[in-house]
Amino acid sequence: MKHFRAISIGAMVWVFIFLTFAVLEYVPTIKDSLNLQVLAVGILIVPYAIFGASIFYKNGNEEHGMKVGIIMALTALILDAVVTVPFVEIPRGGSYQSFFSFPLLWVLAFINIATVYFYWRLKNKESFPK
Fold it and tell me: Could you confirm whether the keyword Oxidoreductase appears in this record (predicted)?
């Protein structure tokens, strides 16, 4: 059931990110620059991932942080493939290829994975040898 928990929390983090992009579409100075939107989300993804990791590890789960981060990121990517691309990107003239080949998408996925990993690492620092 730990995998289901990681998937659920990954979906929650994806919703936060999706809503952040939706709100940024209405911010005058940012709405016309995808790079500025990604920068803002890149900053906000850290507290989102920390929040998600804190929920995951709340009840004493000890799953490796890299594994949990990857599950959360894969969940977000699957939701992007099922929701974001067909309902947001394609109506705007984008495609699956343009969405998934955008390098900053993968930077955001890496930030999410790294944040969960480092949260786990700091939470369990006493169990690592010095």
Answer: no
Overall pTM surpassing 0.90 (yes/no): yes
How far apart are alpha carbons 128 and 24 in whole angstroms? 41
- Listed in order, strand segments (DSSP E) in the chain are none
